[in-house]
Amino acid sequence: MPRIKYATILRVLVILGLFCVWLQIMVSSGLERDGGSTNGVDVDSETLVTPAREELMNGNDTSEQVLALVPQELHKYLTVHPRNNTANSTDLPKNITEIRRAIKRYNDAQTIYNEDIYGPVLNDTVIIAIQVHTRLTYLRHLIVSLAQARDIERTLLVFSHDYYDEEINSLVRTIDFTKVMQIFYPFSIQTHPNEFPGVHPNDCPRDAKFEQAIKLKCNNALHPDLHGHYREAKYTQTKHHWWWKANRIFNQLQCTASHTGMVVFLEEDHYVAEDFLHVLNLMRTTADKTCPQCELLSLGTYLKTYQYHATADKVEITPWHSSIHNMGMVFNRTVWNSIMSLQDQFCEYDDYNWDYSLLHLSQNRKGREKFKVMMSKGPRVFHIGECGLHHKKSNCNANLVISKVQKLLQTTKHLLYPKRLTASINPGGAKHNKKLVKGNGGWGDRRDQEMCTNMTKADRQLKKYVYFA
Asked: Are residues 352 and 443 in contact, defined by beta-carbon separation less than 8 angstroms?
């Protein structure tokens, strides 16, 4: 009798245990479907993050707190429309061939939206180049911030995409407050998933040892990076895209063939103050008078706290450094031509970061000093991206950072639009002036170096690269 009772109790415990496991799985699944936070989510995924997944990570709804500080007429840029899954929907995924054709069609057309409303692009029109990947939530808020900027209607926004997505395209094309152009990086991982510059099946594993790679006869086995690693396409793409975008704007677009004005470089997870164009014009005027050798301007700084009451009308002249002055960076065609004259140094430098590659170039200009920059000490460009290529956080909520920036700009509104700027000279500390001995790696593959160099050639056709020897 006791054996029967013991067996019965054991069976009950086992059933209860299985039920608890099932219940936990169902709860976890529900959290994921509802966009809830789960521990251990690596937002810097090993796979390409799609816009739909990015929306899930950040939460599908903009918080009421954030919306309260956005004018009602701009809420349209923050509205997430459910995807239409009908058979005739244009939002359905396209195959690679269709995407490539669409990219070529748009790049060939060079359409400027709203040109009939705001007039043609002039030689001194401020061009705002925005590098876009897949982080749709951040892009929405960048657009909202741009919409509130004074004189934005006089600019041209150039959105440069390395991921083709109809939802992102639709959002960009709803912009009605200034001229807009879209350009599409044609050599992306998305359009080349099984071949270079994507991931070829015979590419060497990142952590393969040199001897192992030789035995495998994998692509580019003879050329790991300076740390002994082989290329990762998701990292090399960013440098390629930045280089292609800049070359496209300065050298290949019809509307900029004679352009001599300023080009502002932003990214999808930036946020601008409403007076950023006003401050940009003041900086240009101030630089002409006090620092004619300043080739770069910087509208953003990476700060934890902002002392706007003391810095809103201050600028600093200092040696340009990649990790400090790469946000809201501004330069013109003259500077681009200087960069282009040293393109081999940019393209061959073993660093997958475009900004560190520029720093290497800056430090090795024969007969010339390093780039000097005039930086706005009271930033007009802010970084709101908590998730992305270099950020691994399990709790990625765009609303928290955006709300912080909104409140800062609201409480310091009386300090915006300064009448003049006060410039100070900072020779820079050890970090500014330290000579780069070697790069961060990730760019040892000869295919990347050659493709980078060939991008500056008009009408370049992508080759089939195999570099094992």
From this structure: yes
d(CA 463, CA 469): 18
Structural domains for the chain: 51-454 (3.90.550.10)
Cα separation values, 423 from 62, 286, 312, Å: 38, 8, 12
Show the DSSP H helices in 174-232 as ranges.
210-216
Q: What angle do CA 354, 355, 361 make, to 5 degrees?
A: 90
CA gap 302, 324 in Å, rounded: 7
Residue 469 CA to residue 410 CA, distance in Å, equals 60
Spatial strand order of the sheet with 127-132 comes to 179-184, 156-161, 127-132, 263-267, 329-331, 294-298, 372-376, 314-319, 422-425
All residues at 6 or more sequence positions from 31 whose CB lies less than 8 Å from its CB, including other chains? 37, 38
How many C-beta atoms surround the C-beta of residue 38 within 10 A?
10
Largest CA distance in the chain: 100
- Looking at 202-248, list the stretches that DSSP marks H as alpha helix, in order from N- to C-terminal side: 210-216, 233-247
Token representation of residue 89: 């929907």
The amino acid occupying position 338 is S
pLDDT along the chain (469 residues), means of 10: 54 62 45 32 34 42 83 93 50 78 97 98 98 95 98 98 96 98 97 96 97 96 97 97 98 96 97 98 96 96 80 95 94 96 95 96 90 96 74 63 92 96 88 79 97 78 44
Could you tell me whether strands 270-272 and 372-376 are parallel, antiparallel, or unpaired per DSSP bridges?
unpaired
Write down the number of H helices and E strands in the chain: 18, 11
What separation in angstroms does the CA of 266 have from each of 126, 130, 299, 336, 417?
13, 5, 10, 16, 21
